[in-house]
Amino acid sequence: MSADPAADRADLLALQTGDDAALDRIVARWQQPLCAYAWRYLRNAEDASDLALETFVRLHQHRTRLRSDTNLSAWLYTTLTNLCHNRHRWWHRHPSVSLELLPGESENAALGDEAAPPDAVAEQHEALAALDTAIAALPHDLRTTLLLHHFEHLSYREIAGIVGCSERGVETRLYRARQALRGALSAVGPFAVVR
Fold first, then answer.
1. pLDDT score of 126
2. Contact 46, 56 (CB under 8 A)
3. Average pLDDT of 82-110?
4. Where are the domains of the chain?
5. Distance between CA 174 and CA 76 in Å, rounded?
6. DSSP symbols for 6-18
7. Long-range contacts at 178-182 (CB < 8 A, ≥ 24 apart)
8. Whether residue 189 has pLDDT greater than 90
9. Are 127 and 189 in contact (CB under 8 A)?
10. 3-state class of 136 per DSSP?
11. What's the rounded mean pLDDT across residues 177-183?
12. N or C end of the chain: smaller count of CB under 10 Å?
């Protein structure tokens, strides 16, 4: 989340009044967090980057329709979440093999201590791959809520604004997501990540 909501409001207002440099400032602040969120959702760096950029394109296209008091972070995450969901649905209708991460690899291929025993490193890679698979298997609403809370560190209120439910609904979705992950990961062993 942006550390400066006031800067977001000021840049959105400037963008609405024709200052295209304001879009550059918004992109500079938000590109990395949006790419990271999209990557966690899709597990594909190229698509994550494309969809983050598409989010900025849509911001520019819809700038005149947005209210001056629009919560820019919520608008960006909502738009990106919808784009990610659409891309994910497209993948299910048009399956292919990704060469970006081979089966069993995680985003950090060199996790763990270099001196760690190979079997411990293999177990860690297997556990992370199982977690990736379990998160990817969650329904859209549970996955989105889980990613926004645990990885983007958004509050229940912010998540509620993005996903369109109450704060209590966010709490329920997080509970269901954690339960689903516990069930999916029970065969792998204890997981400190799923709390």
1. 79
2. no
3. 62
4. 1-97, 101-195
5. 21
6. HHHHHHHHHHHTT
7. 178/146, 180/134, 180/137, 180/138, 180/142, 181/131, 181/134, 181/135, 181/138, 181/146
8. no
9. yes
10. helix
11. 91
12. C
pLDDT number for residue 133? 86
Using CA atoms, how far apart are residues 128 and 104, in angstroms rounded to an integer?
8
CATH of domain 1-97: 1.10.1740.10
Give 58: exposed, middle or buried? Use CB within 10 Å, 0-12, 13-18, 19+. middle
Q: Do domains 1-97 and 101-195 have the same CATH topology?
A: no
Residue with tokens 């329709």: 65
Residue with token string 């997080």: 174
Helix, strand, coil shares of the chain as percentages rounded to 5? Answer: 70, 0, 30
Q: What whole-number distance in Å separates Cα of residue 80 and Cα of residue 53?
A: 9
The model's pTM: 0.71
Q: What is the CATH number of domain 101-195?
A: 1.10.10.10
Q: What is the pLDDT of residues 143-167, one digit of tens each?
A: 999 999 988 889 999 999 999 999 9
- What pLDDT is stored for residue 92 in this prediction? 66
Spatial distance between the Cα atoms of 143 and 129, rounded to a whole number of angstroms: 16
